[in-house]
């Protein structure tokens, strides 16, 4: 019987061939996980997402680049993840791009470089990554890749059912509540609690701190579990496909809020009264939060 392993993340090697010699993009990790490590584009595969779609999404999120061509690398990285005490299998993809201006995600990476093959190979920390980039150079640069390896990023036409577990913060100042206004996704145009999905290998606290940093440019001193909510919504995504989206949210009371002056928030945020919010368009989680007896706090 054939057995299958479902991958949970991808590796994507990005190449620019418009110069005299091919250049490989490496980005340097920031934050608590392997800080200072140079690597290729990588990231988790979301629920209902194919690996090739994840590679395309991560390329845009981590670099802002759009590929001229995206290939299945015909390779799988295999390594031991010490933090989880598990063996991991990661499908490899190769993207050819024409642009070299990179827009980094500030909470994930703090530098990038376009490097010739030998220098890129030596910059990679893990022997498995060096093995993979050698194979990519041989099969995609020294030889022309087979068209059969062109990555299939088409979205399934049937309804997609996806779920996510996230963490969200309730913050008070005087008689107002901190909220953000979503600009995309199923709750676009609605007020929402700051927060979002918990990424692979993140703790709940790490996820909430990252989301506050990204969405409102703030940090905090203390978080206390308040409640947990769940919600389901039907929506039409950016690809005009029907999606059934189910969310589970851990709701925390956040105290000791501090604004970081040099951090640019990704979303518009507001301090609004509960009475105003009860009449405004809100996400299901914010609507549920407004329906319970909320404690008052200030920073």
Sum up the structure in keywords.
299 residues; alpha+beta; Nucleoside Triphosphate Pyrophosphohydrolase; 2 domains; 4-stranded mixed beta sheet
Q: If you had to describe this structure to a student in words, what would you say it looks like?
A:
- There is one protein chain.
- With 299 residues, the protein is an alpha+beta fold.
- It has 2 domains: 141 residues, Nucleoside Triphosphate Pyrophosphohydrolase (Alpha-Beta Complex), CATH 3.90.79.10; 131 residues, Nucleoside Triphosphate Pyrophosphohydrolase.
- Helix content is 20%, strand content 39%.
- The chain is built from 6 helices and 17 strands.
- The longest helix is centred in the middle third of the chain and has 15 residues.
- It is elongated and about 65 Å long.
- It starts with 8 loop residues before the first strand and ends in a 9-residue tail after the last helix.
């Amino acid at each position: 019987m054939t057995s299958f392993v479902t991958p949970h993340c991808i590796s994507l090697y990005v190449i620019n061939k418009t110069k005299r010699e091919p250049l490989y993009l490496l980005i340097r990790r920031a934050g608590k996980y392997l800080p200072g490590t140079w690597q290729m584009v990588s990231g988790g595969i979301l629920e209902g997402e194919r690996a090739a779609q994840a590679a395309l999404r991560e390329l845009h999120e981590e670099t802002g680049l759009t590929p001229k061509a995206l290939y299945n690398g015909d390779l799988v990285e295999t390594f031991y993840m010490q933090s989880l005490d598990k063996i991991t299998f990661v499908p490899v993809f190769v993207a050819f791009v024409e642009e070299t201006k990179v827009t980094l995600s500030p909470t994930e990476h703090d530098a990038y470089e376009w490097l010739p093959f030998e220098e890129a190979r030596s910059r990679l920390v893990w022997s498995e990554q060096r093995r993979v980039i050698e194979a990519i150079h041989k099969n995609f640069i020294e030889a022309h890749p087979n068209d059969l390896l062109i990555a299939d990023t088409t979205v399934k036409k049937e309804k997609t059912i996806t779920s996510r577990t996230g963490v969200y913060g309730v913050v008070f100042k005087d008689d107002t509540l901190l909220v953000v206004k979503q600009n995309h996704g199923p709750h676009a145009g609605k007020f929402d609690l700051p927060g979002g999905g918990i990424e692979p290998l993140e703790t709940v606290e790490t996820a909430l701190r990252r989301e506050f940093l990204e969405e409102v440019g703030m940090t905090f001193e203390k978080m206390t579990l308040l409640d947990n909510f769940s919600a389901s919504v039907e929506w039409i995504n950016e690809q005009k496909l029907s999606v059934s989206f189910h969310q589970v949210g851990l709701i925390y009371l956040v105290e000791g809020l501090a604004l970081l002056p040099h951090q640019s928030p990704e979303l518009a945020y507001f301090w609004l009264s509960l009475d105003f919010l009860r009449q405004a368009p809100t996400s299901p989680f914010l609507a549920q939060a407004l329906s319970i007896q909320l404690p008052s706090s200030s920073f």
